[in-house]
Design a protein that fits this description.
alpha/beta, single chain, Beta-carbonic Anhydrase, Chain A, six-stranded mixed β-sheet, binds zinc ion, globular, 10 helices
């Protein structure tokens, strides 16, 4: 097995520069249990740099990524175990007070799901992805007919964030924490080309700044 050159070079750069600069913070972080200020559930997409966007330092954010940042429904027992394991640890053990669902523009997972749900024949021969994106069916059903294609995709990306938050309420331990004001749920949608972030404000998305 060959270690790619980019990996070695970038690691060495980080070790000799960033790590060196923040050595004390790394050392301190190893001396006590982690205490993140927020859990972020986002997409696997390589263009989402959540730690850069929100100025994350060592131990700040507990991250879970999956295709299209989905929190599956409680009824979907085949699909929900991985994401819910991460949430369960974050809330029950780490007692993280903020849970952020960070969706984004140009989401390949949402777009693929849109195409396949629109035209059942347009399905790739994937072994796993088709089943996973079927979690998006409810959000897809809410897309207004009179929107343009671009508006439909953006709506779908944002509706998926809303649906994921609705799904969180189906889990008793999460719902209880929300009702006791021990957990703050935040829905965010990030536009890659402009850096704009919108947050879910009641039922619609509003600019964060
Ligand atoms: Zn995505």
């Amino acid at each position: 097995m060959a270690i790619p050159k980019f990996l070695i070079e970038r690691y060495q750069f980080w070790k000799n520069n960033t790590f060196e600069d923040y050595k004390d913070i790394y050392h301190q972080a190893s001396q006590s249990p982690q205490k993140p200020i927020a859990m972020i559930i986002t997409c696997c997409d390589s263009r989402i740099l959540e730690n850069t966007i929100f100025g994350g330092s060592v131990g700040d954010y507990f991250i879970h990524r999956n295709i299209a940042n989905i929190v599956p429904s409680k009824n979907d027992k085949v699909q929900n175990i991985q994401t819910l394991s991460a949430i369960e640890y974050a809330l029950k053990v780490l007692k993280i007070p903020n849970l952020i669902i960070l969706g984004h523009s140009n989401c390949g997972g949402v777009e693929y799901s849109y195409k396949t749900l629109l035209d059942k024949k347009n399905i790739n021969d994937f072994e796993y992805i088709n089943q996973w994106v079927s979690c998006l069916q409810n959000s897809y059903d809410n897309i207004p007919n009179d929107f343009s294609e671009t508006e439909k995709i953006t709506f779908f990306e944002q509706e998926n964030i809303k649906q994921s938050i609705k799904n969180l309420h189906e889990y008793d331990f999460i719902d209880k924490l929300i009702n006791e004001n021990k957990l703050n749920i935040i829905g965010l949608w990030y536009q890659i080309n402009s850096g704009l972030i919108k947050f879910l404000d009641n039922d619609s998305f509003t600019d964060l700044d």
